[in-house]
Amino acid sequence: MRHGHFTIRGTPKSTRTETKNQANDDTSSITDDVRGAEYYHGLVPRTDVEPLLKKDGDFLLRKTEHTPGVIVLAISVRVGTAVRHFMINQDPSGTFYLEGHHEKSISELINWHRTTKTPLSATSNAVLKRPVERTAWLLNHDSITLVKKLGEELWEVFLAEYAMGKDKQEVAVKTMRTEVTREARLKFMKEARLMRKYSHKHVVKILGVAVHEHPLMLVMEVCPGGSLLSYLRKNKGKMDGAIKIR
């Protein structure tokens, strides 16, 4: 692994989305170290995380695209009235650092900065005070089991099971391919943000998104009749006026 920023990959396995990477992936220990942490939010854009950081010292850890195709881990922290973002580096020996101090793992690096109150950089005055927990709509991949592929357009759509403790719910899942562009990922997250705002019997409800690993997933309630566009195409010329305006 080269000196500097490191790449993180998530690998789906069969129709079951794995929460851990393959054993021969040298980044697996990195994601395993932090994926269960309260402050780890996964692959979410700045537009989603910045409103969560309300007070000076509020922080979280997230994935971000540093350059096209290169995903890195970054700490986002509020410093006064601004939010700053600091990418985590790794040296040739495998230790992690932000500017000067090195630790064997990312969680240890974050804990060191929290307990010593050492700024993340000499000029930023960014001190980690309070971790911001993931919101309820950020789901874990290991709670989602893909069952049957329903369709494929820009996203792949699956019938799936979502586990909530001992209970399971049948859901529909849109998955984003790993090779999509940054712009497509932002569009994916924008759709999720918009859908979360609506609660109506005629609007499909979003249960959450899974963004810790690839592929990204948008989890929704199942619509038995399929999409509106598919229904209109299938029933073209067969619907009376009452159905059209309902």
UniProtKB/TrEMBL annotation:
It catalyses: L-tyrosyl-[protein] + ATP = O-phospho-L-tyrosyl-[protein] + ADP + H(+). Residues 144-246 form the Protein kinase domain. Residues 20-31 have a biased composition (Polar residues). The keyword Kinase applies. Its EC number is 2.7.10.2. Residues 39-132 form the SH2 domain. It holds the Pfam family SH2. GO terms for molecular function: ATP binding; non-membrane spanning protein tyrosine kinase activity. Keywords: ATP-binding, Kinase, Nucleotide-binding, SH2 domain, Transferase, Tyrosine-protein kinase. Residues 1-31 are annotated as: Disordered. Belongs to the protein kinase superfamily. Tyr protein kinase family. This is Tyrosine-protein kinase.
